[in-house]
Please model this.
Amino acid sequence: MRRLATALLTAASLLAAAGAPAGQLDFEGTLTTTAGSLPPMATTGGGVATVNGSSGPIPAHLATLRLKASRGNLTGTHTRVVTDPEVAGNGIAAIVVEAGLRTGTLAPISGALSVPGALAQNALPLGGIAKICLLSTVCTDYLPLALTQPTTNGARYQVNTATANQLTSEGLKGKKLAIPGTGVRGVGIGGLLTAGGDGALRISLEAAPWTLQTAAAIDETDANTGSAAFHAVTRMGFAHGPASGSTSTAQPGGVVQLVTPSQVRTNLAVGSDRKIAVLGELLVRFVPEPGLLVLLASGVAGLLLLGRSRMR
Model:
């Protein structure tokens, strides 16, 4: 028994030493997007997440979650065909989404579970494009809707000597020259996105940031029957550890789900301006490092051999 206890303690110390680097956890993720009553589009992937913003050992309590595109990503291309474009799809024959997660930070995770709107940092953009295919599923004719777009919010002003001289020479002394800001709006950030606008062809998407609360959007179009009736589409976020406790999320086995709702309006069909609900769900599951799994398997094998030896 003493040899068995020693072996168990040794294995435990090795596993503790082989844990993830400080502030980092491997993760597996699934990004699911559901537009109206069309089937969901799911993309899977994984990488390395930075948690808690700490330089020390990873605490079990998850405060900050940062995902970086260069350290793993969730990207993919999906096509969803509308059964009857004229009646049920507002003139949309198909939707082709070419998208992927970009770099962003979400915090505080645990503090946002019970307080609505408590995510002080909630910008995790979804980059790429949604092609709104018109009349044909071949998608040769479509409206391109960029999922992130630049914004001039927060514009700054250049007031250096060269600019001042230029304004003076143009008779505009005392004026300020506005330079567009570097802000971004879009899915996973918030703001209004638009495509088209020429004539009767227009589509707009009002996006909202990520939340851990229950998110809802209004849907008015049934892509299968063409009937129009207002109903709310909801998805729920959550965070918990291996034992379902929210204070043990930042360790292998911890799970975080965030939701970003969007409201789409389109007037592609004559006389129509129906609302379409788009819900994005991001599921992040922290997993052990491959080296840790190998070490764990080696420790288990050693314990089995020790037990067999004692039985003999």
In short: Residues 4-21, 153-160, 170-180, 291-303 have pLDDT under 50 and may be disordered.
